[in-house]
């Protein structure tokens, strides 16, 4: 059986990625494909418990190194328990965030060194990298307007933090093309999803996925 495809959705909080990952899942399922939808951190019992610690606004005293390692711990469990088995049976795995979030948030946002981020990501992902990563790019102020009224611990970091994260995502897209592709999320939901479909079709047209 051919190995499945692994696509991650990335971007600053409020960019709309969670909406479009669900739309893509529905579109692929309509083709008769098996789709496994996951979120990082989260999805498994252990990873959801770690997620609660990471996003709890009460945990303002969390050290950035602790934050980094908690994200990686949750990711390792997610990969081992759900992602790798799904890929092995030929499913499409769509992940709401993955290791590139760590590069952007803990690297760009928290200014943890590239070396530590790279080593931590290699361990937390169990060596797995998405086949395709879509970065939903949106102005920080517009993203803030779109976010929910009850921000979590990361969302409360403010606009300057979000700008650093956005810049890190754009730098990543420039350095890791074509795996990482930027989706302009400033238009309507329909316009944005059309860009998502174009990116997916381009990926599927590549010789290794045809």
Number of strands: 5
Class by SSE composition: alpha/beta
Low-confidence runs: none
CATH topology, by name, is Rossmann fold
**CATH class bucket:** Alpha Beta
Q: Name the CATH homologous superfamily.
A: P-loop containing nucleotide triphosphate hydrolases
**Computed CA radius of gyration, to the nearest angstrom:** 16 Å
What is the CATH-assigned architecture? 3-Layer(aba) Sandwich
Fraction of helical residues = 40-55%
Tally of discrete structural domains: 1
Mean pLDDT score? 96
Please summarize the sheet with the most strands: 5 strands, parallel
- Amino- and carboxy-terminal Cα gap: 15 Å
Shape: globular
The largest beta-sheet arranges its strands as: 2-3-1-4-5
Percent of sequence in beta strands: 5-15%
Counted by DSSP, the helix tally is: 8
Describe the protein:
This protein has one domain (5-209): P-loop containing nucleotide triphosphate hydrolases (Rossmann fold), CATH 3.40.50.300. 54% of the residues lie in helices and 13% in strands. It contains eight helices and five strands, in the order βαβααβααβααβα. The chain has helices at 17-30, 45-55, 64-88, 99-109, 114-124, 140-146, 159-175, 189-205, and strands at residues 5-11, 35-39, 92-96, 132-137, 180-184. It has a five-stranded parallel beta sheet with strand order 2-3-1-4-5, with helices on both faces. The protein is globular.
């Amino acid at each position: 059986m051919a190995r499945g495809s692994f696509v991650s959705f990335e971007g600053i909080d409020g960019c709309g990625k969670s909406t479009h990952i669900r739309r893509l899942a529905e579109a692929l399922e309509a083709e008769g494909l098996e789709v496994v939808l996951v979120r990082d951190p989260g999805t498994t019992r252990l990873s959801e418990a770690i997620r609660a610690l990471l996003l709890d606004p009460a945990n303002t005293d969390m050290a950035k190194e602790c934050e980094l390692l908690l994200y990686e711990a949750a990711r390792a469990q997610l990969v081992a328990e759900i992602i790798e088995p799904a890929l092995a049976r030929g499913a499409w795995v769509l992940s709401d965030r993955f290791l590139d979030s760590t590069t952007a948030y803990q690297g760009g946002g928290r200014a943890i060194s590239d070396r530590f981020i790279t080593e931590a990501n290699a361990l937390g992902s169990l060596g797995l990298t998405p086949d395709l990563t879509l970065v939903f790019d949106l102005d920080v102020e517009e993203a803030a307007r779109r976010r929910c009224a009850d921000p979590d611990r990361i969302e409360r970091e403010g606009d300057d933090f979000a700008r650093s994260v956005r810049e890190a995502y754009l730098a990543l897209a420039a350095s890791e093309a074509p795996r990482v592709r930027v989706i302009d999320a400033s238009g309507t939901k329909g316009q944005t999803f059309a860009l998502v479909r174009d990116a997916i079709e381009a990926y599927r047209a590549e010789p290794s996925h045809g």
